[in-house]
Amino acid sequence: MSAKPNPRVGLFVTCLVDAIRPGIGFAAIQLLEEAGCRVEVPQAQTCCGQPALNSGDDKDAADLARRTIAAFEGHDYVVLPSGSCAGTMVHAYPELLAGDPEWAARARDFAARTHEITSFLVDVMGYRPRGRRLDATATYHDSCAGLRELGIAAQPRALLASVEGLEMRGLEGNDVCCGFGGTFCVKYSSISNAIVTEKAEAVERTGADLLLSGDLGCLMNMAGKLHRRGAKTRCFHTIEVVAGRAGGPAIGEEG
Amino acid sequence: MNAPQQGFKERADAALKNAVLKIAIDRTTGNAERKRAVAIAAFPEFQAARARGRAIKDHVIAHLDHYLEMFERNATAAGATVHWASDDAEARAIITRICLEADAKLVTRAKSMLGEEIGLPHALADAGIERVETDLAEHIIQLAGERPSHIVWPAMHRTREQVAILFKEAHHPPPAADDPATMVQSARRELRAKFLGADVGISGANFLVADTGATCTVTNEGNAELTTTPPRIHIVTAGIEKLVPSTAHAFALLRLLVRSATGGEMTQYTTFHCGPKRPGDADGPEEMHIVLVDNGRTRMLADEFRPMLRCIRCGACMNHCVVYRQIGGHAYGGTYPGPMGAVLTPVLDGLAQSRDLPHACTMNGRCAEVCPVEIPLPTLLRAWRTRSWRERLEPRSVRAALGLWAMAARRPWLYLLGSRIGVRALRLFGRRGWIGSLPLAGGWTAYRDMPRPSGRTFMEQYRAGQAGRAGQTGRETRK
């Protein structure tokens, strides 16, 4: 895949990044610009609709899909710092709107333009960071939606391999769910807790300084559990490290 | 069949507190996961075999009437009697009638999840017929008075240490030692007399072969052969989705089934039963009855759950499920646990009774990834969620919260405002980066801390800094 020069990219920030950790959004803008993109942040965006979709509320999910598609009309690409929201847009939007003659084709076109950020940078833009250095050990958790719905596995690792001084350590069960699951983690909180406890134990066994992943929901779940357990592991979104922003506070730290 | 479905959360919580259960689950599912991975790695044509397996099942499901008639014709020609049961009650009635007409006192049974689905163990007890489970794990379940917790290893929730205690109480004489070999010998001795004295043997079927009229059963213990051969009467119970066109198709699916279930290439025993004993045969039953059970399957044929009819009952989905591996099978409350059970139980027991099951899933997709016939399990679970929403089975609080959220999400200005207010409010609850306790989010903070938002939303900072190149100093992420 290769992009046209200086493509016009619409950044979908995602609700969690907007509210909890804006720095991920700014890291995304920085990397997209370094890769040669013209980045815009459409102000009509809200949520991808996944809470409705996963609750079985297809009507509201379809409505939010239409609004999101309309907000990103005219962008060459739609890029998100989340495999989960991207998976919803790429797979669920065309299904939700398949029976809507006015929107079915627009949903397919939108899905074809939509990318999770690490895969967009590597696969579409052929981007690698230059001159980034971080002397630390890190381990990586493959977030499920990105991994299984979008095939994201090699791209974040390729980006991280370009950061000098960063030593990656394998995580046992790296492709096993962390127990977040969106509303699952509060609806079935005791089950979620049992799952994330095993994840935290595996992360602690690596002895790595940093835990990296590509979805803020999963990261909040794992970081929150690690902190509750008293672990010293610091958690960042992959692109924060790739953008050279891991010198600042990790998730849950204040600068 | 109709076990109480209420109280999934209570059952799950009880399971989570059971440390021995967790050890048992980890042993069995961990082993299964490792062995399957090795078997698949040594089977380079696995993806092609999967596609073929799926195609075989899809073909049969699309022509189910054709193959059912062909099977009935050929099974009848081979000397078997074919019975049709539209639901579990009809199936129970047919089987107990056959047993009572044969004046059966003792029935041996080889492991069959369909038998569990139709409530056969209870039905035989109600009819006053002694039932002896001959599968080792089912023998354990029977001694313990329990139900299977896994479709391949029914007693996987019990450690061998617990089984040793059970056998010491129930076996006469008790096993001399606790090692698996001695315990197996003890069970073998207990069961041997029953095998030879049974009037009726009841088995399930892994496949129904349409062009020969044969039924196929796979086991590793040989108990199915001893259940189906010595008694005068052999009864097979099978769901109508077990059909395959020919023996070759059964083998194509066996390659997927055994590797996915146990990581083996073949089971120890793969037996085809084609009619009762013929003149000149040294052994075999005088009568063979095949009870074909619908029990909701034709309904699935017509709706969005049709892909579930492909299921070959390997158990890989539950072995790879993060939820199953924490709570085990009994917490699900239905005949079938894990992801496949969460799809099937609402079909069998009703959605109102089991709405928790399709929701108690993180949608991580690992079950679909390992499914040997490519069943899109998360998609089917989501379809149940959609029905549950449409039928207003979701709690009022959930509906109200989601309605409010969706109302705001349709209005970007309101959503942005809500986020701005929300993050400021959230900050009030935390100190030094973390929130340890939060009203309305107790499910989160009971078990883990919540990172405190950094103060201003991305959108606020982006708009404020748009002219001055927001995001370059790094300071804007903190207040």
Description:
The complex is a heterodimer of chains A (255) and B (479). Chain A is of the alpha/beta class and 255 residues long. Chain A folds into 2 domains: 8-124; 133-242, Rossmann fold (3-Layer(aba) Sandwich). Chain A contains 13 helices and 8 strands. Chain A has a 4-stranded parallel beta sheet, sandwiched between helices. A 4-stranded parallel beta sheet of chain A has the order 6-5-7-8, with helices on both faces. In chain A, helix 7 (117-124) crosses helix 9 (154-161). Chain A is globular, with a radius of gyration of 18 Å. The model of chain A has no long low-confidence stretch (mean pLDDT 96). Chain B folds into 2 domains: 8-299, 3-Layer(aba) Sandwich (Rossmann fold); 396-477, no CATH class. In chain B, the strands form 3 sheets. A 6-stranded parallel beta sheet of chain B has the order 1-10-7-4-2-3, sandwiched between helices. In chain B, strands 8-5-6-9 form a 4-stranded mixed beta sheet. In chain B, helix 3 packs across helix 12 (247-261) and helix 16 (338-349) packs parallel to helix 20. The interface between A and B is large, with 72 and 72 residues.
